[in-house]
Amino acid sequence: MTGLASALRVLAAAAATLLAVTATAPVAQAKPEPKAPGEFVPLRSVDPTILQEMRYPTGHDFMGEPVDGYLQPLCILTRPAAQALHRAQLRLLRQGYSLKVYDCYRPQRAVDHFVRWAKDLDDETMKGEFYPRVDKTRLFADGYIAEKSGHSRGSTVDLTLVRLPARPTKPYHPGQELVPCYAPRADRFPDNSIDMGTGFDCFDTLSHTDDPRIQGVQRTNRQFLKKTLTDAGFVNLAEEWWHYTFQPELFPDTYFDFPVARRSVAGH
Q1: Is 240 considered catalytic here?
Q2: At what angle do helices 216-231 and 79-93 cross, to 10 degrees?
Q3: How far is CA 29 from CA 24, 26, 33, 44, 57, in A?
Q4: Is this model's pTM higher than 0.70 or not?
Q5: Which residue from 5, 154, 227, 253 has the fewest beta carbons nearer than 10 Å?
Q6: How do 97-103 and 51-52 pair as beta strands?
């Protein structure tokens, strides 16, 4: 019994020492999420009339899943870019149209997600809609995916035009039949925008703003969008009819990584 009692005392002492060490050990603190600089604002705080159909928080994108960093369906931009969209919107409303944004500020972690997906050659879940004619091994070489995006600087936006009154866009259901993004408007995924010849994020040369194969109403619509935004101070990316950057950029060399969430721009 004496030996047992001695062993119990040793165990008790060891337990007390362990508890003391645990109590005094520093507790690892979760790293706080970065916040947006004060020059960033939610678009709705500048113009609540601009329609927002943010694609990357949903599963209806070229990856088929929500994108890292998009915690809420929210358009965030630098204030000058948001104000320029507001000026364009005022002009459009008088003509019976509205802007609709698909993507605005994009965190670097989202771009990193795109890169990981592009390197996974076995994942072609959404190929039938977004890149039917492009081999996935070509996404980097052909410029569809890159390790940096101007969106992360906060003055770039992906958008289209909607004729008013706006009809709701039919929701996407995962697993539904995919139709090529360049199919006739009546066949491809329904969007309440005017016909631009392809859907948003269509990885195809038909998405080039001035592609000569795009004619008639589709070409007119693209040029209408381009002129409206050019007059407001935006510059179009020639390879994507939906992609515009406000110039001059507030942060031409900075790629931010705060999440897309209201708390990132708290106070606006």
Answers
A1: yes
A2: 130
A3: 15, 9, 12, 34, 28
A4: yes
A5: 253
A6: parallel
* Cβ contact 139:203 at 8 Å: yes
User: How high is the pLDDT of residue 268?
Assistant: 66
Q: How far apart are CA 130 and CA 41, in angstroms?
A: 30
Q: Is 194 helix (H, G, I), strand (E, B) or coil?
A: coil
H/E element, 102: strand 97-103
Give the whole-angstrom CA distance, residue 232 versus residue 235.
9
Which residue in the list 33, 39, 239, 240 is annotated as catalytic? 240
What is the percentage of the chain residues whose pLDDT exceeds 90? Answer: 85
Angle at alpha carbon of residue 73, lines to 35 and 159, rounded to 5°: 105
Instruction: Check residue 74 and report its DSSP letter.
Output: -
* pLDDT given for residue 9 in this prediction: 53
Higher-pLDDT residue of 17 and 238 is 238
Residue written as tokens 């500048």? Answer: 46
The set of residues, in sequence order, having a beta carbon less than 8 Å from that of 206 and lying 6+ positions away, is 182, 197, 198, 213, 214
Give the C-alpha separation, 103 to 255, whole Å.
16
